[in-house]
Structures are given as C-alpha cells and as structure tokens.
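Re: Re: token formats

Sure, here are both.
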Amino acid sequence: MNIAIVGTGYVGLVSGACFAELGINVTCVDINNEKIEGLKNGIIPIYEPNLDILVARNSKSGRLHFTPDLLSCLNNVEIVFIAVGTPQDEDGSADLKYVLEVAKTIGSSINKYILVVTKSTVPVGTAQKVKAVIQSEIDKREVEVQFDVASNPEFLKEGDAIDDFMKPDRVVVGVETEQAKELMTRLYRPMLLNNFRVIFMDIPSAEMTKYAANAMLATRISFMNDIANLCELIGADVSMVRKGIGSDSRIGNKFLYSGCGYGGSCFPKDVKALIKTGQKNSYQLKVLEAVETVNDRQKSILFDKFSNYFNGRVDGKKVAVWGLSFKPGTDDMREAPSLVLIDSLLKAGCHVVAYDPVAMNEAKRILGNRIEYAVDMYDAVLDVDAIFHITEWKEFRMPNWGVIRKSMNTPLLIDGRNVYSKAELEGIDYIKIG
C-alpha cells in the first residue's frame, strides 16, 4: 500500500515512520524544504526517543520517503493523511487554514479515487469542510473524480509515541463509506492481527473522541490539583489521598498526580478548542472552563510558595530550575509550567539558572539570554537560594543531596512534581504541593 502524510511535525513524522515500519510505502510531505532536506540526511527536527533509529532504518529500506512536493506523489497513493498543524486561533478555536490549504491542493490535482484522512486534531465538522473544499476544486476543473474523507485522530504521548503507535490502546477511525472502511482496514491490518482494537465509527464521533479524551485527562489533573490545594489548608496529604481514590476500580490511578499544571501541545489547546466549539453551538462547558481556570492558577503556585517563604523579599535571589520541557521524554516547551514560573521570577527581580537534559536548545530559542543555562543539575545549584523541580526527568530522582546542600546559599527545594521525601533531603527545607 502507498500512502502520503502531509506534515512532518510530531504527529506526521512519528506516524510516517511507524507506518513504514509496518511495511507500508510512505511519503512524508512538508513545504519546509530545509526540514525535508534534513530528514533525508537523518536530521530529526523533534526529540522523541528512538525516532531517529526508526526513520533511518525505514529510509534505508526504501519504505520511507521525504518530499516538499505533494503533487509529485499524490496520484500514486491510495490514502493521504493530513497531519499539519492546527494552532490555536486568537479566540481559542483551532485554526484550520493549513488543513484546508492541503485540501485545496488535493482537490485541484487528483485524477483518481483517493481517501483523504484528517490526522491532525481538528474540531467536529472539519472533515466535512475538507470534503467541501476538495469537491469545490474538482468542480472548478469540470471533471468527475471520486474521493472519500475519514478521520483518524492520534493518541500519541510525547516521549512514548512509538510504543503508543505500535501497541495502541485503541485506533479510532471515522468513515462514511464501505470503501473508506475497507481501505483503513487494510492499512491497519497489522494491528488487527495483533488483536489491537480498531474502532470504526461515524466521522463526527471520531473527531469528538480525540477532544473528549484529552479534556477528560486534563480534568483529572486539574481536579487533583484543586484537591491538593485544599489538602494543604486542612492538613491532609494529597499523596495519600491519591492512593486512596486511585485504588477504586471505577476511578483508577492514572492522571491523579498533583503538580504545577499541565502543558504541551495538546491539553491546553484542545480544552480551549472544545470550549470554543461549545460556545459556537450556544452551550457552555462549565466543567472545562473550570479545568482551564484551575490549571492557569496552578502554574503560579510554585512562585507563590517561594515568595511566601521569603516573606515577599525575593528581589535579587538566585534560583535554579530543574526541568524546562512540559514533561519528561520531550523537548516540547509549549505551554510549559516552567515558562510561567520563569516569567514570574524574572519580573520579581530573580536571577534564574536552568537545566534540562533535552530542552536546552528549545529554551534558548524561546528565552534567549533572559536566563543563565547550566551544564548539569549540579552546576545549576551553585550559590542559589532555591531549587525548583519542574519536570520529573529520571536523572533528577536521586541526586547527591549532601553535595547540593553545600552548594546552595539557602537550603530550599520547591518540588512541583512531589517526587521527593523530606527524610532524604539532609537539612534542606522541602516544600511540595498538597
């Protein structure tokens, strides 16, 4: 089977490499010539564990190709995935201009049946917009060409994306016709052989499933953060509360960890987009509005704890920030809690020294010379008045606290991920969440 994937961002590149690993002939398309040339030479534009190995192996085997020209492969493939970005618009809705541009190109050029699949996270109704644009371009040419649209949302976790693709909890596919269903069944046959769940449904339901899943996970995070803040006021320990409720089979223990807020490319954008979809349909999603409010508030909680510790006198303090990416396993800093914290620290007159195992280049691109960059976690803590633990990278789990204590000016650790135990900290004041 021959397929094309338009967009070599996180979703497109991971999907392309994994489909190729399953034996499918894949052409990845991107209008960014520099990115395409880099990919041809093994330069991966994002950090994802083992993705470079997968790309190299399948490029060498001749199953994975890269081109800036969709038209060069369009009429040689059976399926085209649209995996371009859907950035957040000014009003919080998803911006579909890139998706619809691809649809326009497809409609203006196809001369045989093709299945067009939206892989990007898009609001309900997008597939119909894509269908209308393609048909409009076909009509302008005064030709008759059959095509179908489908929805195949991704559920990849950054840092675990390859395993998520190859061993999925489920594959959701929205289709309108039997022909589209047959094609998608052929595409995912390796998954079916391994008894993974491929769930077929109508297109609007598939589009909604992606948003609903991310909104539910975001809700669990904000719920636990709210509970954590209440625990502090009444003297309860949120870690114990989490264990207590997580043991309930109706609830489960996933996404019940309190912290300094969620970030990344999915949860913040998708929650906002779903709220906007509700507004467009004259329906207020009150729970999700509260989820967003709690998360925004939670991102400021670490600075508040820091300021309270020093009775508001933080001007001139030197602080270390351990972890910059929104979660471990990625260099993604979109909507990262670290950015909110650093901005508050700088506005308060603090000197910030940061270290992240993977995201340093991304941090330098975003923050420039506003902060200092350390070479490792120990370099970051020299003469500091506080350490902020923001991203739970494994290398931060068991540091030499004796060495760190001697390096610090003020022995204060503010833990945004609740991973440490006060008993192990050897004279360091420990503040956590909840």
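Second one below.
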Amino acid sequence: MKFVSAQEAVSLIKSGDYVYIQGSTSIPEVLSQALADRGHELRGVTLYTGFGVAKGEAPFCKPEYKDSFLVDSFFVNNSVRRWINEGYGSMTPRFLGDVPALFREGYWPIDVAMLNCSLPNEEGYVSFGVSGDVAVSAVQCAKTIIAQINPHMPFSYGDPVVHISRINAAVEVDEPLVEVPTPSPTEKEKKIGGYIAELIPDGATLQIGVGGIPNAVIAALSNHKHLGLHTEAMTDGVLPLLESGIIDNSMKTVEPGKSIASLALGSRRLYDYMNYNKDIIFRDVAWTNDPFIIGQNPKVMSINSCLEIDLTGQVCADSIGKKIFSGVGGQHDFVYGSSRSEGGISFLAMLATTGKGHNKIKPVLTEGAGVVTTRFQTNYVVTEYGAVNLLGKNLAERAKLMISVAAPEFREELDRAAAERFGYSYLRLK
C-alpha cells in the first residue's frame, strides 16, 4: 500500500472515468475535495453517489464544474440533493438491494472506487466498516482503488474488507466520521412506537429504519425477549437492546447469533461498539436486502417511514411532489421480504401531518410523487392515531381504515373524497 498525498491519489482519475464515492457516514471528504480541485482540467467524469450523510454540500457540485463532473445518484443524499434538483445531476431509480448488479452485470461501468478505510489488521486487510452496502460491489468491480486510511473508521467483520495489496493509492487521514445522533422521539412518535411494539412478538427479527419513529419503536421494546437483527442500517437506537441482551439473535435462521447490517449511521459510541466486534457482521446490500434471504428468518418485522400515503395504500418515501428527496432505499426489499417470512409484518409509519400542519394522508398522491411501496404490498400503516392493517382489504375498506388514522381535522375532507371516488362500495361501510 503506497501512501501519497490526496492530490497524487486523485491524479489516477482521468477525463471520462466512472468513479464510485463511498457513502454512509464515511464519504471520503479529503479525496472528494482533491478531486473537485481538479475540476478545471477534467471533463465528463461520472460520479456515482448513494445513501450517505455528508458534512456539507459536495465540493464538486458547483456550476463551473457542470461539464467536469456528472453526478449520478441511486439515493439522493444531503451532499448532492440541491445539485440534482437544480438539474445538474441525475438520479437512477433502483431498489437498493439491486444496485450492486448494475456494477456486476456491466450496466454501470466503473473505473475507480474512492473509499474511507480503517487501519489494516494483522493480515493486511482494511475495512470500510460503516459502509458495506454498495461499496462491496464497487470495490470488486473497480479497476483502481483509492483509499483514505483513517484511524476513526471501525473495523467491521464480513464483506466490507479489502487487502492493502489491492489499493492503488492510499492517503493518511485523521478525520472523525460524521455522527448522526439518535433523535429523542416526540410524544406523537412515542405513540407510534407503542402501537408498533405491541404488535411485535418475542423472537422477532427486526429491520429498523432511521429516524425518530424507528427509535421510538426500539425504546418500546425493553420488555421483549430473544429479538434478532437483520437490517439495512444499524443505528445507535439498537445499542440498548444489544447491550441488555434483548437482541440475542437466538431465534434467527440466517446467521443465528449474529447481528446483520449493511451500513451504520450513528455516533462515535456506535462506531466504537462495532469495532472488531465479532457478533456484528456487515454484508453486501445485495445480500442483506435480498427478500428471499430476509424471508428465511421467522417473524420479520420491517419498520420504515414514509412521506405520504394515499387512500388506497400507495406509499411515497422518496420525493416531495416532483422534487427528489432521497431514494427507495431498502423499504421495498424488506416490505417484500417480511411478506415471505412466516409470521412477518411490515409497518409503514409516519406522523399524520407535516411540521407545517399539512395532511400526509392524501386522496391521491401529490403530483410527481413516486410510489415506493405499491398498494399491492402495503401491510400495516401507523400514525399517532393508530395502526391499521390493509392486508386483504378492498379499496373502499382501505379508504375507511386510512381515514381513521388521519389527523381529525382532515377526516371530513377525506371522507368526501373517498365517497366520490369509490361510490356506494364506500358509502355502505358507514
């Protein structure tokens, strides 16, 4: 492994190259800045970005670099969101578990993978610890690997490791990872957490999303037993359940005794807990998010959030109208995976209104809103006003159930819309 300056490392990138930039909380910011500094001399470099939390806007997202770097994101994160919504970059729709196949099957050419890695272990392997997800496939397929070697990166076991002999240029970096503190659930979120926790049995396998609502669910599971973890994103919220032994993974079929994740988003406490912890295994997202693998575990409880839902159960989780906000992530993968699990349930949870008081249960989705989970897949919908199960319900019955968990001030309006749309099949339910 050859140590060079960041400027020397990115000199390996040429005009027309295709470059993957690692995500999660481990975006290689030093390398990204060095690459941006070459914007005046490079042309047509495609940058693949995905799920991640950056310290700020990406340094290559500047108007003067619009012909130098084309950002192509499979999950729009905070570093590139404005750039993409202004039309300079673009987004490739793809279920997160299927993104690795774009590299492996040649749909996306890849020349360079830029990583943020741990110090090497005794066998000469470094780990890109908090970000297995798509990085595993990018490393396998890239011709050139450029890496920050960073003592702040935890060494995680499983797929996100690479031998130093494969790294073409390494840069010594002493830079803390981005931290994503665990938000304290609001009273409304605690209600949602309570509704969901009541429906989760002992021995369940959890997939938990990110944010206040998933953390409220976790906080309500303190009296459960023998839970398992097979999730896409590991957060600080699961630490109390791991440390107390509530999550012991004893009832899982896939990797029993081990907590499984594909990426981590948390505080330094989580990263330290992960470091050289053999009870936690990080995997390629093509594996963690494979519905046929997910479904092998019993009682899979998939818990995810969304932005809005219509009266028939169509779920939008990636856009606000026409504006792309994020991406599909693993919601679909785990909704489907839980449906294949014996005793599995998927929960789609949200507050009934936005912070400005706008209704999030709509007669029809906002124009331009993307359908992430179709009405053919939606199981439980949960707001602070209750939990309803749409499974096996016709459109009129679904509308009635959805209205029951909407904010009271919008129920009359929704009732009129449902009567107009579904006619007597709805009116006879009153």
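The chain has two domains: 6-172, 187-427. The radius of gyration is 22 Å.
- S.
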